[in-house]
């Protein structure tokens, strides 16, 4: 019996094919990050950061990671990919890409899906790559090469991870953006990067979130606390959500502000419909917060706590409504109110011209803040 089984297995080994679809890493040129810009002649400039190793070949201990930049100009991404293949000694391999950067001019003038079409069709594409908009030229930012001692691609990737965990920007990648591109009931926003100069060196900073309408960048950007407030309304709070709020304008400089961290949040969304028309939208927002810094002290006083709750609630209500007005001015439905109408009130949605009516719908939020913790001291 054992001999028969062995003969069958050996016979199968002779007729079964091996792995014919091999893509050996030794032949691949791994792309860590890519950028896309619109050129003066209305073409697409693609710049790719290819990770390589430099140093002696005797042992891995002396090898160091380095960037090699390759770029090409073409009518589409596939066109630029073909041209870049001619400039590389190995196979252009995008399956390890972590970051995709888009220049703000390209994002504003071209729709996103035609730009990304190749990424959704190529099985080797990294659908988990993070996507961000860049102020000015994305290529120039990518070709900064290093920030301090960190390679630029890795620096941007870790920076985006940091702002996501601090609820400063949404968690978006190539795959998640695709689902929103084709959803007529919602828009989206992406991290907005800028190149800033620190003394003699340049650094990368997330200066806000870029608002999209359908597939194009609107040119409007949420800045400061606005991205965090909108993400809280979307119930997308992550590990840390902190705000520094002026509560004592007449105090000395060091005692004007309180810093809070949101510990628990509850958001109730109300769509007010009458005669099969959406009349208004209101948000009832409740935050339990931790006071992480308050130089004026006196947090042992219930009266002080009550007064602070009132001041913080008013300040956050005003800021949140300003952020809502900004997304409406941009005609960017990042709160997915249209998606709620499609899902729960389809008869109302069918009667509305959402494109023209959304910016004028009264949308208001009311925030109620309660300090529930003051740290290890009162």
Question: What would you say this structure looks like, in words?
Answer:
This protein has about 375 residues and is of the alpha/beta class. The chain folds into 2 domains: about 25-225, no CATH class; about 235-378, GMP Synthetase, Chain A, domain 3 (2-Layer Sandwich). The protein is about 30% helix and about 35% strand. It has helices at about 1-15, 75-85, 105-110, 110-120, 140, 150-165, 175-180, 225-235, 300-330, 335-345, 345-350, 355; strands at about 30-40, 45-55, 65-75, 90-95, 100-105, 130-135, 145, 150, 190-200, 200-215, 215-220, 240-245, 255-275, 275-295, 365-375. Strands 1, 2, 3, 4, 5, 6, 9, 10 and 11 form a 9-stranded mixed sheet that branches. A 4-stranded mixed sheet has the order 12-13-14-15. Strands 7-8 form a two-stranded antiparallel sheet. Strand 9 (about 190-200) and strand 10 form a beta hairpin. Helix 4 crosses helix 7 (about 175-180) and helix 8 (about 225-235) packs across helix 9 (about 300-330).
